Amino acid sequence: MGEAALAGEHAVKPLVSASSAEGLLTLTMANPPANALSIAMMEALKGALERARDDAGVRVIVLRSGEKLFSAGHDLKELTAHRKDTDRGRAFFEKTMELCAGLMQTIVRHPKPVIAEVDGVATAAGCQLVASCDLAVASDVSRFATPGVNIGLFCSTPMVALSRNVSRKHAMEMLLTGEMMDAETARSFGLLNRVVARDALGETVKGMAKLVASKSSLTVKIGKEAFYHQAEMNLSEAYDYTVRVMVENMLARDAEEGIGAFIEKRAPEWQDK
Fold first, then answer.
1. In which family does this protein belong, per the annotation (predicted)?
2. What is the Cα–Cα distance from 127 to 46, expressed in whole angstroms?
3. Which of 100, 140, 229, 265 shows the greatest Cβ crowding within 10 Å of its Cβ?
């Protein structure tokens, strides 16, 4: 994908910059001061993700921030400005929430793994963004919250991603109290995979991304899709579905190569098919 600048239609400056190397696509958000998920920011992110979908040079995507905050969530000033509309903002609120829901589902349904690299505060829809990613690594100074309840706007859409990552009791604690939590607490809740020192964050994420990128991209695609699909099924349905997935996977060239390489004690040569 090379170096590129990606912006929403109404952005004066690029809101998302993209750089790629070694099969890793890094998307860096830049919407100071709070890295708010405005309409333009969400359109830019969604567009960048969609362009990466069929890019064979992209095997793993890293989502990070170039600001002091990862993301403070929706742009409340943008939302409030539309209260002056004749419908009191209903149409714009619907557009914002639907676009956000679409962005989160784009991440979950993306054929490439998406890793959140968090250095700073992630709140509300920003926390939802972290929860929607397949993996998440944060610096030890990062903090997380779903504080909508504090301003009379319950974090109902962030709740979808949150409740699919952490236990119900932990999710409700975050949603009902709105309190900020440190990175280690977020990790213990299940929101994060790892917490590392700030100066080790970039290299830790890169190492994780390169490890995932070294696998067969076809196998990873099959596995990611199956993981989220079976999670919504009951036990017997999930086993019926994953049996079919395993059989089809076994018939793939990369499975034949990978198993053969394991038996022969050699490195596999992936063809991603």
1. Belongs to the enoyl-CoA hydratase/isomerase family.
2. 17
3. 100
Query: How does strand 4-6 pair with strand 16-21?
Result: antiparallel
Residue found by looking up tokens 């604690």 in the block? 173
Q: Domain spans of the chain? A: 4-213, 217-263
pLDDT tens digits along 102-156: 999 999 999 999 999 999 999 999 999 999 999 999 999 999 999 999 999 999 9
132 contacts 187 by C-beta, under 8 angstroms: no
Paired sense of beta strands 143-145 and 194-196, if any:
unpaired
- Per DSSP, the residues of 30-44 read --TTTT-B-HHHHHH
Strands (E), the chain: 4-6, 16-21, 24-29, 60-65, 114-118, 121-123, 135-139, 143-145, 181-182, 194-196
pLDDT digits (tens, 9 = 90+) for 223-232: 999 999 999 9
Q: Which amino acid, residue 150?
A: N
Q: In this structure, what token pair is assigned to residue 38?
A: 């405005």
Q: Which fold has domain 4-213?
A: 2-enoyl-CoA Hydratase; Chain A, domain 1 (3.90.226)
CB 252 within 8 A of CB 270: no
The rounded Cα 91 to chain-centroid distance in angstroms is 26
Cα angle for residues 228, 233, 236 (degrees, 5° grid): 125
Characterise 223 by phi-psi region: left (phi > 0), alpha (psi -120 to 50), beta (else): alpha
Peptide bond into 14 cis (omega under 30): no
